[in-house]
Specification:
Layout (H helix, E strand, L loop, with lengths): L2 H11 L1 E5 L4 H13 L4 E5 L5 H12 L4 E5 L4 H10 L3 E3 L5 H10 L3 E2 L1 E2 L2 H9 L5 E3 L8 H8 L7 E3 L8 H6 L5 E3 L6 H5 L4 H21 L6
Parallel strand pairs: 1-2, 1-9, 2-3, 3-4, 4-5, 6-7, 7-8
Helix pairs in contact: 2-3, 2-10, 4-5
Length: 223
């Protein structure tokens, strides 16, 4: 897929599971569980041991069924290594303009992190495709996102940090491009106890919430 198709896929799915795991084997198991739950997008963070090889393995095993991104990418050198391993989009918790420039050079979608209006506009002006608002729940959650979208409707935003099943619909109603979902979906306790099916069930719940929220946002034709 090209850059525009990748972004459209993320928008359609509405979810970017943030995969953190204590080992490469656990990460690969979690990736399979997320796909089984009906979410064909995931972000493998650089905090996973052997993260770049995990990206390579998941890209190979999914055979194009899953859109695999790299997360917690802090510099252009790491971004390049992830792209060469097969990562189809790059995510960061912070703003590094050189990382944005490298991703644009490779025509790979880049989603840097920012929090304040100034940081968000700076990221967008530097070439960010979407801006990750992190940690969103710490500064007001859906209400903060809605406040940002008022003056900045042209900037696509992915709230991350504190997104849960109970807040997902509200974030989408506030104008989220998609939702960055961490531990509430990718349950580390489930991984450690050898119960990846719990992650699959969480994924299904999130898919249902996104579908219901988007259906509710469609204007109904008056009879």
């Amino acid at each position: 897929m090209n850059r525009e198709e990748i972004l459209q896929k993320i928008r359609e799915v509405g979810l970017v599971p943030v995969l953190r795991a204590p080992s490469s084997d656990a990460a690969i198991a979690a990736a399979a569980a997320i796909e089984s739950g009906g979410v064909p997008v995931l972000e493998i963070t650089m905090t996973v041991p052997g993260a770049i090889e995990v990206i390579r393995a998941v890209v190979k095993s999914s055979q194009g069924r899953v859109l695999v991104g790299a997360g917690t990418v802090l510099d252009p050198e790491t971004a390049r290594a992830c792209i060469l391993a097969g990562a189809e989009f790059i995510v960061s918790p912070s703003l590094n303009v050189k990382t944005i420039e490298l991703c644009r050079r490779y025509s790979v979608p880049v989603i840097p992190g920012a929090l304040t209006p100034t940081e968000i506009v700076t990221a967008w002006q530097a070439g960010a495709d979407v801006v990750k608002v992190f940690p969103c729940s710490a500064v007001g959650g859906p209400k903060y996102l809605a406040a940002l979208k008022g003056p900045l409707p042209q900037i696509d935003l992915i709230p991350t940090g504190g997104v849960s099943l109970s807040t997902a619909a509200e974030f989408l109603a506030a104008g989220a491009f998609a939702l960055g979902v961490g531990g509430d979906l990718v349950d580390l306790k489930a991984l450690k106890s050898g119960k990846p099916e719990l992650i699959t069930e969480n994924a299904r719940k999130y898919v249902a919430v996104v579908k219901q929220a988007r259906t509710a946002s469609i204007p109904q034709n008056p009879k």
